[in-house]
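User: Round two. Same drill as before: sequence, then structure, for each protein.

Assistant: Same drill it is. First protein:
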Amino acid sequence: MRTHRRLLTVTGIAAAALATAGLNTSAFAATTLSSGHVDVLDAEWDGADLHLHVHDEEAGTEYEPADVTLAVPAAARVANPGHGWLGTGSQVWLLPDDELVADSRGVLFPGISTEHLATGVFANNTVTYRLVSATRNGAATEDFSVYAGSTRWYDSNTATTSFKSRTFGVGTHNHANWAFEEAGTYQLTFRVQGTVSGVTEQATATYTVVVSS
């Protein structure tokens, strides 16, 4: 298994240039995305390496995950849909799988994309996105999940080893509900993995999500 360097995108390039020049990079605050169509998990293959980035569909801009904060406002709170994995609280913060609903609430419409991956490169023309870890306010959390209808895609609950990975065909664009059971600052680490010519290729990134009460 090979470990690959990640490709710098918009903000990363600027920060790297300043660091090389010996300047203070603290002025480069993370970009905050709080509404609109954003592919949170978006993979690219440059012919040698897999990369993960955040693709803001509204602005047509790509960001390194470390350069972005995803904001979930109080307006995202809805009545608990009642799925067993969403806990017993009366409300959850929900980024919906319906773009019209997301726009009406002024919240993110989060996507999981493989549309930049061409056919004929990865074995079975598929890659897998895995939820590696999830924390809230610095501690492991059971409060994050992704689901479509009544089907769980991901669940941060460490009591189960299921719902940690999902395989997608290349060249596809996917949407599901992203649910948070409590307010706080989440760190979600995802890995994308596929096989190219018998070799496992992968990229891992951590995403910061701030859920407001």
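Second protein:
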Amino acid sequence: MTATPLVVLVGPMGVGKSTVGQLLAERLGVAYRDTDDDIVTTEGRTIAEIFVDEGEPVFRAIEKRAVHQALAGHDGVLALGGGSILDEDTRTLLAGHRVVYLSMDVDEAVKRTGLNAARPLLTINPRKQWRELMEARRHLYAEVAQAVVSTDGRTPEDVTQAVLDALELKEA
């Protein structure tokens, strides 16, 4: 028998998937898992290093494997990397899961991440690149999600409660 995640969080880099995911897991009494962490552990290097050393296509293949393994083997709260929804097979696998899209606008992204160079896809003109990434991805996040929760101007605790309410989940 394979495990199935209780909740899957998707959304752009810096939206708070890790922070909210950990809070959500604590409140639900389940384990938390982040596919970006899985990749770093498995590969023994940062995501930025994989991008620089191997390029985005190699990273996306590694990410796809990590996401598919986590979807099949984790029964708690699962946070996916921001670009994981670009893969059609991944989007298909997400059907039937409780997926929440954590959203934010560009001003909030600037506040949270500073749109810094540690984010490999935001190295030149980060504000413009973030907007372009979101234009390309927003509809994909929405496509896979059962619920959309805005994080703009909210604390992680408020967002966590909004996710619980949106999915009608009870705390442990």
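Helices lie at 17-28, 35-43, 47-54, 56-73, 88-94, 106-113, 126-144, 156-167.

User: Perfect.
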